[in-house]
Amino acid sequence: MPELQIDEIAAVVAGQVSRAERVTSFMDFQFDTRAMGANSLFFAMRTVKADGHRFVKDLAAIPGAGAVVRKDFAEGKLKVPLIRVSDPLQAAQQLATHVREKYCSIKYVGITGSAGKTTTKEFIFQILSHKFRSFRSPQNWNNSIGLPFSLLKMTGKEETAVFELAMSDPGIGEIDQLAGILRPDVAVLLNVFPVHLEFLKTLENAAMAKAEILNHLDADGCAFVNGDSALIRRAVADKKRRSKTCLRPSWYPSGWEWRIMKSRKPSPLCSCWPAGGRSVKRADLSSSTRPTIRTRKP
C-alpha cells in the first residue's frame, strides 16, 4: 500500500487538515474501522446501511490512525488527525485516481460484463503472475467503493494489475466513472445478459453501459470484446471507429484464450488466440507509443 503524507492527501482531495500536531503519514486506507491497523486512514462514508462518522471515535485506540470526514463533523474531544471534505467517498475516488497516476508504469486490466468478471479476473491474474509481479482487486470489489479501495491497496512495485468494473447503482454512466478512475491499458468486455433491467429497461441500454469501459482507453490501449454478441458489436461500433489502435481479436465467431508470449523486453504481452487455427493479432503493451501489431498463425 502507498505511504502518503497527510498534506499530500489533503491537497489531492481539497480537504482541510485538523488535529494533526506533527508530520503524519498513512500506509493503509479503509472504509471499515474493524479492518484498521496502525497508521491507517479511515474514510467515514455515509451509505444506506450506516454512517461511518459514528465509528470515528473508535480510532482513538488505533496508533497513528486518522479519518477523512465531512466538513460538518463534530469531533468533540477526539484527538486524531482529520481531513475535512465535502464527501468522503468522492475523496477516496480522487485519492485512488492520484495513486493510479502515481503508479503509471503498471499495466492495468479492467474487466466488465454481466457475469463472469471475478472468474475472469482470477484467470488473468494467475496467468500474469507466472511472469510478472501482479495484483488483483480483492474478492468482488468492483463498484464505486470497491474499485478505489482496491487501487489504494497497491504498493507500486507491481507490473500488472487486474480489476473488475460493475454497476452497484445500475445506470448509464457508472462504468464510465469507474473507467475514468482506472484508465485501463487493457479492457475486457465479456457479455451482456438480462440483469439490472429494472433500471436499464433494455438489453441495448445494458450493452451501452458495459461498453463505457472503452471510453477511457488510451490510443495505444488494447480491448478484448465478445464478438459473438450482436448487442455488444453495436454498442462498441462508434468506439471502434474512434480508436483505431484498439484491438479486438475476439471478434472472430469462435472462442478465444489468453496466453503470455515471450518478449525481448521484460514487460507484459497481451495475446488473444481464436480457435480453429486462424490468424490472430498480437500487441506489445509495454510500449508507450502505438502498439506493434503482427499477424501470425497459432
Can you tell me about this structure?
It is built from nine helices and 16 strands. With 298 residues, it is of the alpha/beta class. The radius of gyration is 21 Å and the shape is globular. It has helices at residues 6-13, 88-102, 117-129, 146-151, 174-182, 197-200, 203-211, 230-235, 237-242, and strands at 4-5, 16-18, 25-26, 28-30, 40-43, 66-70, 82-85, 107-112, 134-136, 160-164, 186-189, 222-225, 256-259, 269-274, 280-284, 293-296. It folds into two domains: 4-87, MurE/MurF, N-terminal domain (Udp-n-acetylmuramoylalanyl-d-glutamate--2,6- Diaminopimelate Ligase, Chain: A, domain 1); 103-296, Mur-like, catalytic domain (UDP-N-acetylmuramoyl-L-alanine:D-glutamate ligase), CATH 3.40.1190. The chain is 26% helix and 21% strand. It has a five-stranded mixed β-sheet.
Relevant terms:
16 strands, 26% helix, five-stranded parallel sheet, Udp-n-acetylmuramoylalanyl-d-glutamate--2,6- Diaminopimelate Ligase, Chain: A, domain 1, disordered C terminus, alpha/beta, five-stranded mixed sheet, globular, UDP-N-acetylmuramoyl-L-alanine:D-glutamate ligase, single chain, 9 helices, 298 residues
**Total count of helical runs of at least 4 residues:** 9
Task: Supply the number of structural domains.
Answer: 2
Strand content: 15-25%
- Give the uncertain stretches in residue-range form: 242-298
CATH 4th-level superfamily of the largest domain: Mur-like, catalytic domain
How far the N terminus sits from the C terminus, by CA atoms, comes to 39 Å
- Helicity, as a percent range: 25-40%
Which CATH architecture of the largest domain would you pick? Answer: 3-Layer(aba) Sandwich
Beta strand count: 16
Mean pLDDT reading: 82
List the strand order in the largest sheet.
2-7-6-5-4
Q: What does the radius of gyration come to?
A: 21 Å
Q: Mind summarizing the main beta sheet?
A: 5 strands, mixed
* CATH fold name of the largest domain: UDP-N-acetylmuramoyl-L-alanine:D-glutamate ligase
CATH class label of the largest domain: Alpha Beta
Summing up helix and strand content along with how strands pair, one would put the structural category as alpha/beta
Q: Can you tell me the overall shape?
A: globular
State the order of secondary-structure elements, H for helix, E for strand.
EHEEEEEEHEHEHEHEHHEHHEEEE
